[in-house]
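Methods: example folding runs. The two proteins below were folded one after another, and each record is reproduced exactly as written to the output file, sequence line first and structure-token line second.
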Amino acid sequence: MASNAYKLVESEWTTLSAIESFYSDIAELAEEAREIVDNAPESLQSSPRIETLSETADTLERIEQRDPPDTAAEQKFKVKLYVPKRKSDRISRAVRLENAAILADQACGMIGSWCDAQADELEDGADDPTEEWRLFIEEVREDIEQAESVEFPGMMG
């Protein structure tokens, strides 16, 4: 959970743009962590902070953007995300990750609700057109879980 330096602000998203944003944020955070590790002085290469950031970069780099199924499940939704209370403050990497995870999880929930509604309308014996979407959100949620397992130690972590 974000510290007292942040407030929750509501914004509107579409399900697919939210999931796309999650993967974009993950790639950006992985790149930032890798840059810190690669540019650390040799004397700090084996420090706990750099080792943790290296593990974080490795984990986030393994998360690849998933392509959604072709059928439409696009919906708009509102979500509250953390922003700094003072506009001059930067948002930490840990909070950026938390926001990305919240956003993607909310989008997965919306898609899951859409799938349930579609399934309720199926006639007995009909093929379930939401099967691909259910698999997609399951995979995205696995990526969210993997991303949430990382740490950003110290200095705007």
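Second run, written to the same file directly after the first:
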Amino acid sequence: MDVDPDTENEDLFFDDDADGSFDEAAPDQPEVDEATGGPDTAELIATRSELKRVEAENAELKNQLARRQADFENYRKRVERERSETYNRVVADVATKLLPVSDNLKRALESESSVEAAESDEFRHFLSGVDLIWKQLNGVLEALGVKPIPAVGEQFDPHVHEAVVTEATDEYEPDTVIQEIVSGYRLGDKLIRPALVKVATRK
């Protein structure tokens, strides 16, 4: 039988196994340099680096936004507080000027009420007009947030009451306000003026 000269010298490698089989030599494979990698590896590394940069930038922007929001909230609260303080100060100044007028109207009504029955219809109408003005003035003060301080029957409180007279009596507990001489007023937590009162003392 003729033998092909091209295959006559083909290299065969016999296995040392007992069965006597043999393996054909595998062709040489190109080695991959893991240190340097290929174009795909370089692109992946660049993408990861860009992602880290974007994440860091995003975190910084979020921090800046949180700081701006906190600054704005503090500014809003400060403006509201200053506006409220200004309003209360103006109202307190106005109330301080109007309260003596209210006091005088009240005194006039109290002093004339005892003789009203003996006076003419015209005078009674005049007192009714004064009473209406006094009530309207108190309504304006109340609409502004000015409230009277409770006095008669209350326990004496040096923060809102000013004792100008004391009376020894067994009818009331000591340090009880038994008469309001001049009404006191407050605007929210701000005291406009204390109530002038008579206070009971122990006999």
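Comment on the second run: Confidence is low (pLDDT under 50) at residues 1-5, 7-18, 20-27, 29-35.
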